Amino acid sequence: MKHLITVCAAILCGAISYGQWQVSASSGYAIGSATMKLGERVNSSGTENSYGSYGEGVNFQVRGTYFFDKNFGVDLGVGYLHGSDQDVSVVNLPSTEVDAVARARAFGASASIVYKFTNNIYGRFGALLKLGGKTEGVIYQKSVFSEPEAEALGVPNGSFSETNYTEDFHGQFPLGFVGALGYKYDLDSNFSVFAEVEFYGISLKRKDSEISEFNTDVKLPDGTVAVSGLYTIDNLPEGVNKKTTYVDKLSNTNTDTTKELSQKVPYSSFGLNIGITYKFKKTNKE
């Protein structure tokens, strides 16, 4: 036992004595991979599926890396994803218009193993997880009133309702994969710049959602507001729930509209990052 402890201590001391710390900051853009159906686009001539991934968008990362020797190291990183708009529902019909998009606003972290193939080319792979954030849905809906509806509201035919609301979707704790291949160029003994291609493989299972903003106005055919704030966040229309919980199982006799079956949504992506690295002085004496 003492021999084993001595060997482990020697290996650890050796790794530390020849190790090197570095920190990196980068930004980049990713496109969706392993895309899934997110919604539909509907017009008078037909219906078209909308595919995508919420992992598409601009990302910002800060990473700390420790190299045990000239080739092998470990990397810890945190990042923020400012996702691009993804079509969830687009409807263009004579009496109805809908423009509903969703986008990621997420914070994540990664833990990876890094290996230098050469002094300039490196690779890293490891685990990816989400720390916080949301998938934000932004919805616009225009609906022309039928004659009975217009009469009940005391507005002329051709009047319509215009609704704008925001719904925030939250997910359960996910675990995914991250891998990257990069090229770095040394500017001097401390600074270097790099470019890398990066893959995220991760999906998110929905946990709950909540409407954070809601407003419905009644407008005349010329667009003049006849009734402002017919419905608001404090006065939601019948059938619209402020909060929804997503579950894996529902009874056939369920009547609770605040519960819906859960689903997984994609966050996978391929991206290109460009950044700068600062290398601290090596701990060994040369």
TrEMBL record:
- SUPFAM superfamilies reported in the protein's UniProt record: OMPA-like
Taxonomically, which superkingdom? Answer: Bacteria
List, alphabetically, the InterPro entries matched: OMP/PagP_B-barrel
Q: What's the protein called, per UniProt?
A: Outer membrane protein beta-barrel domain-containing protein
Source organism per UniProt: Maribacter ulvicola
